[in-house]
Design brief:
This protein has one helix at about 5-10, and strands at about 40-45, 50, 55-65, 80-90, 95-100, 140-145, 155-160, 180, 185, 190, 195-205, 210-215, 220-225, 235-245, 250-255, 255-260, 260-265, 275-285, 290, 295-300, 310-315, 320-325, 335-340, 345-350, 355-360, 365-375, 380-390, 410, 415, 420, 425-430, 435-445, 445-455, 460-465, 475-480, 490-500, 510-515. By secondary structure, it is mainly β. It is elongated and about 120 Å long. The chain starts with 5 loop residues before the first helix and ends in a 25-residue tail after the last strand. The relative contact order is 0.13. Residues about 1-35 and about 505-538 have low confidence and may be disordered. This is Fibronectin type III domain-containing protein.
Length: about 550
């Protein structure tokens, strides 16, 4: 689950009076109501238990059976004591609980081994040491076994049984002086003279870690954007927390969630101080269930440069020109960006602070938003000045077959001279402005075949279907747009059509664009002007 690029989102141009997202816009959306925290306990008397919903780990205390005394009174070893936290389980797991038993005392024969209905946990019997002393039996192990019909049963927690007393003492089950668990934090060497037992407490599930998409600096603040956890593991998420010191402490984070993801603003930060930021989900009645933390990112708040003033936007065919007045302060350069709905890109990245104009190409369309912001001496963005409602016109449709410029409309294998009505073919052309709109037409009378956006090199490739009712005979295919200087560019080829009808059709081709690189990149963030920094000086 990967998501919006932090590097591109970090270039977002927000409203002229803000950096990032205003705290006045923040609210809690998409957060579930708190549910009671699941609780569950168990003990050895239950024999078999099933892990309930909402429990993803267990804390366990287990004591193994002690070894029996030898016939001469030599005591057996105590059983092991296991105290472990956060042993992983899953809701629905069937757990068999085995409580160990002490080994029998030696007498006229070796003591019996501690019994267990789980054969691997039983202790062994004592023996004659060769000098007439009979050893005590070894204690049996206490533990938990997960029933797994697919892969076979397996143990997840074991407290060993003590060895029997005397040189002929039986072996206690399990590794002596080693407490074993499948996971978690525990003591490995504890023993206990208490009676064998086992008990446990369920640990509620918590949400997976969010994915921290970006952290952008503001004036005494930082805005975080993240993707919600992939799974809440059955525990409803009731909110989020944020850390600015790499997890040493956490605080509630008010967030807003929309089609672009989830975001929130951290306030009260000190400018020019670097913070290590991460987020986590929380749940439970009092948000006591802390989810896994996201990966961290560093951010340094700062005072941004003011927004440029006197911003003016003019347009011609597939081209936008922006001019502005420099803001006060030390300016290193400018970023100029454009957005269209939820897509956006960078128009210019200017490294000369004396340059206050920018011209760049964009596909034809209406309701663009254009913005400009200054870059300070540390390469940090200032506040943005934006102009919404910008319309970029498309190519002017010629009324007659235009004069051909250098180059041809071709197919993947080269020139095209003959086509068949109803045929599907690919048309290609080059020499146009990058990221500009090209219109395809067929003459005798001009009929539009659709439009296509050029790639970063000013080329296009488009698949079309020749209308089945196109007239037989000679036709002209025209691709009209603008070149890299903004001048009209026309590619014209003459083709002979066969398999059609005897009169000229008034319908065109069905144009279906195919994938080409370099068009406007779809990004999140309606109203944000976003783009990778492609440095240019114009």
């Amino acid at each position: 689950m990967r998501f919006t690029s932090p590097s591109r989102r970090a270039l977002g141009l927000a409203a002229a009076s803000t950096i990032g997202m205003s705290t006045a816009l923040l609210g809690v959306t998409g957060i579930a109501s708190a549910a009671p925290t699941p609780t569950w306990t168990f003990n050895g008397s239950q024999g078999t238990v099933t892990v309930p919903d909402g429990i993803c780990a267990i804390d366990v205390v287990a004591i193994g059976g002690a070894g029996g005394a030898a016939s001469d009174g030599s005591p057996g070893d105590p059983g092991g004591r296991l105290e472990v936290e956060d042993v992983d389980v899953q809701p629905g797991d069937v757990l068999e609980l085995y409580v160990g038993a002490a080994g029998g005392a030696g007498g006229t024969a070796g003591g019996t081994g501690g019994a267990s209905t789980y054969a691997d946990f039983a202790g062994s019997a004592g023996e004659d040491d060769g000098n007439g002393v009979f050893g005590g039996g070894g204690g049996s192990m206490t533990g938990i076994v997960v029933v797994d019909d697919e892969y076979g049963d397996y143990s997840i927690a074991e407290a060993f049984g003590g060895d029997g007393g005397g040189d002929g003492g039986g072996f206690g089950s399990g590794f002596q002086n080693y407490a074993s668990a499948d996971d978690g934090t525990y003591s490995q060497t504890a023993t206990s003279t208490s009676a064998p037992s086992i008990s446990g407490t369920g640990v509620a599930c918590v949400a997976d870690a969010p994915y921290l998409n970006y952290v952008t600096a503001g004036n005494g603040s930082a805005t975080v954007g993240f993707v919600a956890p992939q799974s809440d593991n059955g525990i409803a998420i009731t909110g989020y927390e944020v850390t600015t010191n790499n997890g040493s402490s956490w605080a509630p984070l008010t967030v807003v969630t929309d089609e672009n993801g989830t975001s929130g603003t951290i306030t009260g930060l000190t400018n020019e101080t670097t913070y290590t930021v991460a987020v986590r989900a929380v749940g439970g009645t009092n948000n006591e269930l802390k989810g896994a933390a996201s990966q961290s990112q560093s951010v340094t708040p700062y005072v941004p440069l003011p927004a440029p003033t006197n911003v003016s936007v003019t347009t011609t065919t597939s081209r936008i020109t922006v001019t502005w007045t420099a803001p006060a302060g030390q300016v290193k350069g400018y970023d100029v960006g454009v957005s269209y709905g939820q897509s956006g890109d960078q128009g210019c990245a200017i490294t000369d602070p004396s340059v206050t104009t920018c011209t760049f190409f964009a596909p034809a369309g209406s309701d663009y938003t254009v913005g400009v912001r200054a870059i300070d001496m540390q390469d940090r963005p200032g506040l943005s000045a934006t102009r919404p409602g910008v319309t970029v016109p498309g190519p002017v449709k010629p009324t007659a077959v235009p004069t051909q410029d250098n180059g041809d409309i071709v197919g993947p294998s080269g020139p095209i001279s003959k086509i068949t009505a109803g045929q599907t073919l690919t048309l290609q052309g080059s020499g146009y402005a990058p990221n500009s709109t090209v219109e395809l037409l067929v003459f005798s009378s001009p009929v539009s075949l659709g439009t296509v956006v050029t790639d970063e090199n000013g080329s296009f490739s488009v698949e079309v279907t020749v209308p089945a009712n196109l007239a037989n005979g000679t036709h002209h295919l025209v691709a009209t747009g603008v070149d890299a200087n903004g001048n009209v560019r026309n590619l014209v080829i003459t083709v002979t059509v066969s398999g059609g009808v005897a009169t000229l059709a008034t319908t065109g081709f069905d144009a279906v664009p195919v994938a080409v690189g370099g068009g406007l990149v779809l990004l999140t963030g309606a109203g944000l002007l976003v783009g990778a920094r492609r440095r240019s000086d114009a």
